[in-house]
Inverse folding.
């Protein structure tokens, strides 16, 4: 299908160096990680049923979640803010397709792109508390996209036993060398609300599902 991303911004030499260094560092460290999946049969079942999946995970778990899912052709929503450009290039290097926009900038185009991708039978990964927070609070974008497309929202979580944690708003986690990472998938859910406003009101229910799958990952 046609790429749902917006136009890419030309990057400076300094940014290219940052992207190169970050990608090589990720490759070196990630080669030592040990990853296990819990509930992967749910993903397989949804794919067998030809149901589009909207993976949701918290922003702080981005690296731990996205690296094990690389090169699967998943689409991911990336902020149009300047700092999103470096992230977008690294995600492309990982094999992700991009949808540009967020709840705070480019929201309309992002929602249209998400719905188009999901209706085409493809999967999306999104951090419902990104790109600026509040941490672990479910913004309505993912819920509305699921309501309009009929896709399944799949609450997901990454547990890391050894990590560095940044002092950022999301408490971003970087798994240490030889860390054990558990990727858990929760109960898929559909949004049957009659309107986007009604769909957005399901955020507390979805936050509870995110908490439940986190407990599974930590077990």
């Amino acid at each position: 299908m046609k790429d749902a991303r917006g136009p890419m911004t030309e990057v400076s030499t300094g940014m290219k160096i940052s992207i190169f260094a970050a990608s090589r560092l990720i490759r070196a460290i990630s080669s030592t990680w040990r990853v296990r999946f819990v509930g992967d049969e749910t993903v397989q079942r949804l794919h067998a049923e030809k149901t589009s999946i909207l993976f949701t995970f918290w922003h702080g778990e981005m690296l731990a979640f996205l690296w094990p899912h690389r090169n699967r052709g998943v689409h991911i929503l990336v902020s149009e803010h300047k700092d999103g450009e470096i992230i977008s290039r690294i995600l492309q290097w990982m094999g992700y397709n991009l949808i540009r926009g967020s709840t705070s900038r480019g929201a309309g185009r992002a929602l249209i792109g998400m719905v188009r991708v999901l209706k085409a039978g493809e999967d999306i990964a999104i951090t419902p508390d990104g790109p600026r927070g509040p941490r672990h609070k479910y913004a309505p974008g993912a819920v509305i996209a699921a309501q309009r497309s009929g896709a399944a929202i799949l609450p997901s979580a990454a547990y890391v036993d050894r990590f560095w944690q940044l002092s950022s708003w999301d408490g971003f986690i970087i798994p240490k060398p030889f860390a054990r990472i558990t990727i858990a998938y929760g109960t898929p859910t559909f949004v049957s609300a009659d309107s986007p406003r009604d769909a957005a009101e399901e955020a507390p229910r979805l936050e509870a599902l995110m908490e439940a799958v986190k407990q599974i990952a930590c077990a």
